[in-house]
Amino acid sequence: MQFDKIWLDARLVTLKPAETGLGIIENGAIATKDGRIAFAGLLSELPGNWSARETVRLDGRWVTPGLVDCHTHLVYGGNRAHEFELRLAGASYEEIARSGGGILSTVKATRAASEDDLVNASLPRLDHLIAEGVTTIEIKSGYGLDRDSEFRVLRAARRLARERPIEVATTFLGAHALPPEYADRDRYIDYVCDMIPAIARDHLADAVDAFCEGIAFSPEQTARVFKAAKTAGLAVKLHADQLSNLHGARLAAEYGALSADHLEYTDEDGAIAMAKAGTTAVLLPGAFYMLREKQMPPLDAFRRHGVKIAVATDCNPGTSPLTSLLLTMNMGATLFRLTVDELIAGVTREAARALGRLHEVGTLETGKWCDLAIWDVERPAELVYRIGFNPLFQRVWRGA
Question: How far lies 36's CA from each of 67, 215, 220, 370, in Å?
């Protein structure tokens, strides 16, 4: 068997769904051919006639799938450091939003930015994530809130995949907030729905998201967005139950959403609905930390009903200016009491599931893209345990 490249003397975290825990293989090997995994398993099970153009010995280093950040708002203009100061002085997220701050302050800066401006501002944030082993990322729009600006943000996100070796999934989040030029939320939802066919036609987005919350859009308005997305052939996702329980998790499940995200106020019925629909729960400890929230996501209910759990940075300028998936894992452990196995799966296999890409990435299995993160650690738990330390030895994308 001829490989392009093979890594020997590796300890593999395969995360194969059929395996227990992390699917660890000691004394393993992993090989690539044409950018895809051609072998991942015990060194002793390699075919006797194998050869490779390049052979690398890892001296017992750990290999995981490339990390997947499945919920970000990476492309935006400006920053909101002044709102951080306001929150430190006692203002709540809702108070800032209702006074014209929050998302709308970023909308103003984003509308004023060119596509080149947005790409150049986003690349340093993306580079921080790549440096920690991220090989797939989701990027949402939602800071333009008009046709030209939303399309510009989505084009900028697509461009990032040409500027760096990374897979970018894009999501249209037009229903993020009510823009200042609209007084009627239903009329704005009409406008959002009218944008969706062109977004699908021009392949600007892979999915459609909405913010279902009292300060944003109602379940009924969200359902209209979902119907338009489904008609256009796009998958759906949802910011659900972050600040209150509007039964967003259940709504997401009813529409077969890939994921429902945040979920601090989700109830048992929502967890049951997500499990039945196969909707992944994406937890965002960075926003929970920045907003100093107290209501925890219902982890026990998710575990009890078998809801798959992913974890993401929620990188955004206001409530989670976070560009470290490693730190996100530590936050998930300390704030939510997620286990090491749950967290490592949550930034690989389950994050890929949340993007509808588990057939291509997220585990070390033959036929999937050879996206790897190779680590200088003694055990996988160190990826979660360490704070402010990056033990990445090498990042591999598409076998190179």
Answer: 16, 44, 43, 5
Mean of pLDDT over the chain: 96
306 to 195, 252, 260, 394: CA distances (angstroms): 36, 17, 15, 33
Is the predicted pLDDT of residue 366 greater than 80, yes or no? yes
- Please report the pLDDT score of residue 193 as a whole number: 98
**Minimal CA–CA distance to 312: which of 343, 341, 335?**
343
Q: What is the pTM of this model?
A: 0.96
